Every structure is written in C-alpha cells, then in structure tokens.
C-alpha cells in the first residue's frame, strides 16, 4: 500500500490476538505498522511483533525486491515493534541501524547485541538524508517508553509517530477510531500526559500532512481533529460534558439506585458501566472522556467492592483529575465504601466533590431516593458548569 509516491505501508495484522500487552481486549485484533521509504537510500521504519517476521519481510520485498535496505529506523523498542530487529539485521547484513542511545541500550538487553559495528546513534533533532527525503528525529521520551522517538519526513511532511495516534484493531478496522484510540491512549499512555504534551509542543511548528503511527490506520485527513483530541487527552481535559456512572452491585440494590439516578438525569449524556462485567480499560477511558464520574459501590470487607477498588486505582495511576465526582455507597450495617473510595482518590488533583453523598442501607427506600434526587440536581449543575482548568 502506497502512502505517498515513495512511502509504503509494510505492516501486518494480528487478527487472532485477544489481549494486547496481556491485558487490553482486542476483539478486532491489532496491527503492527512498519513503513518503507524508497529514495536514493532505502529506509525501513520499525519492525513488527515476533510471529509476523515472514509476512513482514514479504511485504518489504514486494516494495524493494531483492535490494537491501540501507537503514532500519528504530523509533520504539517495545517488543511489538522491535522484536524482529535481530532477525532483520541477520537477513540484511549491510543495513545500518538508526536509533538513539537508549534504544541501543535496550537492543543489548533484548538481543545481547547493540550493533556497534553497523549503527548510527542519533541525538534529538538529528537528520538523516535519503536523497529527496530528509528524516528528522524528534525524541519523545515516555511516549510511551523512555527511548521513544518520532521521525518526521521533511519532503512529504509525514510524521512517523511511534505509539502516538495509535489505536486497537487490525489495519482498517471498522470500529470507531475515537473509541479505540481513546481506550488505547488512556490505557497505555494515559499516565504520561506531560511527555505527550511536550511532544505535541515540539511538533507544533511542523507542517504535517500524514501521520503514520505504529498501530491503527494512517491518518491523512482532518489531522487537527486527531491532534486536538491528543491535546485534550494529554492535558487531562474532558472531551465533553457528561456523566459516567461506574458501579458494582452484589444483589442489584446498588444497581437499582444507579438506574434510578440515570433516569432522573435524562437531560444529560449519561453512560453506566458495571465494573464486574465490563472491559475495565473501556470504563477507565470513559471516565477520562466525561467531566463527571459517579462511583457507586457496595461496602466490602470494611472497604469497597474489589472491582471498584481496582477501577479507582487504575484512574489514580493515570493522573485522573480535573473532574466532578460523586459517591453512592451501599452497606447493610457499617457502610465503608465512600470513605474508602475517597481515600483511593486522594492523590488525584482538582476533583470537585459533590456535596450530596448517597448512602443506601441494604435497599433503596424513600430516604435514599430523596438523597439521589438531591444528588441529581447537584450533578446537573456540576456537569453543565464550565470547566475549571
Ligand atoms: Fe506499540 Fe509501546 O508499543
């Protein structure tokens, strides 16, 4: 597949993978993207996951035939992109490997070889000349590993963006880009908002016509849409006004309260997620999508129900903050859920806590319905107010 006259897609699909990184559901598989730039010199950017060596090499050969690539550009050392470096280097013995010092250090760790006799060690801002194309290397530490960098082609204004702007799914997946990109970004890179912002700042002066990520489709149109989303995600800014009600329920009494509240909030955009039966990464991503989250859970072992604990920890470790928060707890003798949920959110910054807290003693009754009614009124106000950053 041609991206431009000289830039070709040579990536592969993993249609069978169901858990990316051993934890993220990939019902529509995953792709590992690699590209070939044909010029006076030939460059390949990144490799693919280990099992796909043969089909990847076949794709490369379909572009360059029996020629040998002059360079292999290594933007990122996570094994889904790097695990075939060694085999590639064995096959193409004259190819020079181009990466930064940290990446070569990781090559030594992964392959017991840092390719000292056939490498170019680049620094932030260095360039490599292929002929018509000049590749400019821009370091992107912690997007998503410390050695990560992106490569900008000054000729065709193409950004090889490493993990940035990726998503779950095979190449050309029909799943909505935004949902799978959000789940991917928040899950995998969400903790590293500042480094992503730094990268966006570094790129802000560059004219970019095409984004070639390491996962997901090549982005060619309306790039400001994708970049604006990355500005929001990296800045922990909600995408829209709306409410996620994340809940657990043991005997459906808490769930009944959740549905009662959702019905009362019918004028607002509200999504409910049962944390015990839903994809956790999707629930986490939705909490970052909206400006308000309601946590509803039973008390358990003197704390909170385990799925809720895990959910909140996942939010906190991704720097969840800058949002409205409310609590609904259930408990039959000593409700402890809200206290525990607050403690778990303790490290999160700029949370606006609803004054109305709801306590259900075993089952919903007139009193707890009244609490939910009050919470509903407050949530409408909080959710509709302009964001304070
Ligand atoms: Fe797709 Fe951080 O690797």
Please, could you describe this protein's structure?
This protein has 389 residues and is an alpha/beta fold. The protein has twelve helices and 22 strands. The chain has helices spanning 53-64, 79-82, 85-91, 101-111, 177-189, 193-203, 223-234, 253-264, 280-289, 306-316, 337-344, 366-384, and strands at 7-9, 12-14, 19-20, 24-25, 30-32, 35-38, 42-45, 71-73, 96-100, 119-122, 127-129, 134-139, 149-153, 158-160, 210-212, 240-247, 270-274, 290-300, 303-304, 324-330, 352-353, 358-360. Strands 16, 17, 18, 19, 20, 21 and 22 form a seven-stranded mixed β-sheet that branches. The protein has a six-stranded mixed β-sheet with strand order 1-6-7-8-9-10. The radius of gyration is 24 Å and the shape is elongated. The two termini are 43 Å apart. The model has no long low-confidence stretch (mean pLDDT 97).
Tell me the number of strands. Answer: 22
Largest sheet: 7 strands, mixed
Q: What portion of residues belong to β-strands?
A: 15-25%
- In angstroms, what separates the terminal alpha carbons? 43 Å
């Amino acid at each position: 597949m041609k991206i431009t006259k000289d830039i070709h897609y040579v990536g592969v699909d993993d249609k069978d993978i169901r858990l990316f990184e051993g934890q993220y559901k990939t019902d529509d598989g995953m792709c590992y993207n690699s590209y070939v730039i044909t010029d006076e010199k030939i460059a390949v950017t990144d490799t693919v996951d280990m099992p796909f060596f043969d089909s990847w090499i076949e794709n490369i050969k379909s572009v360059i035939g029996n020629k040998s690539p002059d360079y292999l550009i290594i933007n990122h050392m996570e094994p889904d992109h790097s695990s075939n470096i060694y085999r590639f280097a064995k096959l193409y013995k004259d190819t020079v490997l181009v990466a930064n010092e940290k990446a070569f250090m990781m090559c030594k760790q992964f392959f017991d070889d840092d390719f000292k006799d056939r490498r170019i060690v680049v620094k932030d801002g260095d360039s490599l000349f292929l002929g018509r194309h000049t590749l400019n290397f821009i370091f992107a530490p912690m997007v998503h590993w410390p050695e990560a960098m992106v490569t900008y082609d000054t000729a065709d204004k193409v950004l090889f963006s490493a993990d940035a702007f990726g998503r779950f799914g095979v190449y050309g997946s029909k799943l909505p880009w935004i949902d799978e990109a959000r789940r991917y970004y928040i899950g995998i890179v969400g903790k590293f908002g500042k480094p992503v912002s730094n990268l966006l700042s570094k790129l802000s002066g560059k004219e970019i016509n095409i984004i070639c990520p390491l996962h997901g489709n090549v982005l060619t149109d309306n790039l400001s849409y994708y970049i604006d989303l990355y500005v929001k995600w990296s800045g922990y800014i909600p995408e829209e006004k709306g409410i996620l009600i994340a809940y657990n329920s043991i005997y459906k009494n808490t769930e009944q309260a959740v549905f009662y509240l959702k019905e009362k909030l019918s004028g607002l955009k509200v999504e409910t997620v049962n944390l015990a039966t839903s994809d956790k990464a999707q629930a986490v991503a939705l909490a970052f999508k909206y400006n308000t989250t309601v946590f509803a859970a039973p008390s358990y072992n003197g704390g909170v129900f385990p799925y809720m604990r895990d959910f909140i920890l996942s939010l906190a470790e991704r720097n969840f903050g800058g949002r409205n928060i409310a609590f609904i707890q259930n408990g039959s003798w000593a409700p402890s859920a809200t206290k525990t949920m607050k403690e778990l959110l303790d490290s999160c910054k700029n949370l606006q806590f609803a004054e109305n807290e709801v306590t259900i003693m075993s089952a919903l009754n007139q009193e707890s319905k009244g609490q939910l009614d009050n919470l509903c009124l407050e949530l409408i106000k909080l959710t509709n107010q302009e964001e304070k950053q």
